[in-house]
Amino acid sequence: MPTDSAAVSRRAFTLGAAGLAAGLLAACSDSADSAESPSGAGKGAGSGEWKPVRVKHKFGETTVAKRPVRIVSAGYTEHDFLLALGITPIAVTDWYGDQPYATWPWAQAKLGGAKPTVLKLDDGFQFVEIAKLKPDLIIACNAGLEQPAYTKLSKIAPTIAQTGKGTDFFEPWTHMMELIGASVGMPAEAKKIREGVAATFAAAAKAHPELAKKKAIFLQNAVSDGNLIAYQDGLSTEFLTDLGLVVPDAINSYIKEGEQAYIPVEKISVLNAADILVWGTEKDADRTALEKVPGFQNLTAVKNKRSVYTGGELAGAIYFSSPLSLPYVVDKLVPMLAAVAK
């Protein structure tokens, strides 16, 4: 995973484009009448009679009056959720990894031959580009959406924000699945997907009782500004806890508000609270660098050979924490965990 603060820390992004004039947006909306759909993209929501849906979120309630066909995925991972529902967005948002059409291997089959427009969120929402696409629904529930940006996006098309029940980025994937399913009029299908993923994890947990109650901590691949970045219980750690593992609360005193736990290198021994350490390494050089961190070789999990090093695709699947990436996590990570848990 990148080491820049935008991607690594998942911090709230500055809405650099928020100052765009409303008149400019209006002009783009007018010109969008002639905008063409990206090649192969734009498979809309469901079939049959459409009934307007009302979706509650952090900034109130959005009504989706007509069946959405031109859907923009304006946050980092929402396109995985749409693809899981059989919906192809006309635009996706790139996070990291330089994947074709911002779509990682576990989701590429669902994308098929579609070529959606790829947006960026690095400097805030690309309001003008989004308006040019003339969407009829904008999904932005994993985009760190704030009120000013929500207001601007809502002038372009009905917009779905995060629930407001958790962090602005990376709410529990089940919340996002429910929210997105409701937005496109497919709540039953969304529920079935949630149940399917849950069953996959339950089966893996049953097959590997050696994981039950073991303490595990997931960390990013590198030291950032003198800190190791760990994920506390509840922050995209369901991939561990749904397997029966437990995230120790010893790291909680290092949590930054709305973010992860930032553990100073000199406090690395706090990681001895875990039986297993899962490192989101992306290449061999990441592991080599970690092994040179003061105190790393003395960690109990390292000495006991109970450290897991993911590799790039598995790390990405963990970070995405989507209905398409999580089964991939089970397939790839569980054998690695089982090998070190014995």
TrEMBL record:
PROSITE patterns: FE_B12_PBP, TAT. Its main location: other. Residues 70-341 form the Fe/B12 periplasmic-binding domain. One of its GO terms (cellular component) is outer membrane-bounded periplasmic space. Residues 1-26 form the signal peptide. InterPro entries: ABC_transptr_periplasmic_BD, Bact_iron-sidero_bind, TAT_signal. Keywords: Signal, Transport. Pfam families: Peripla_BP_2. It is found in: Cell envelope. GO terms for biological process: iron coordination entity transport. Belongs to the bacterial solute-binding protein 8 family. This is Fe/B12 periplasmic-binding domain-containing protein. It comes from Luteipulveratus mongoliensis. The lineage of its organism: Bacteria, Bacillati, Actinomycetota, Actinomycetes, Micrococcales.
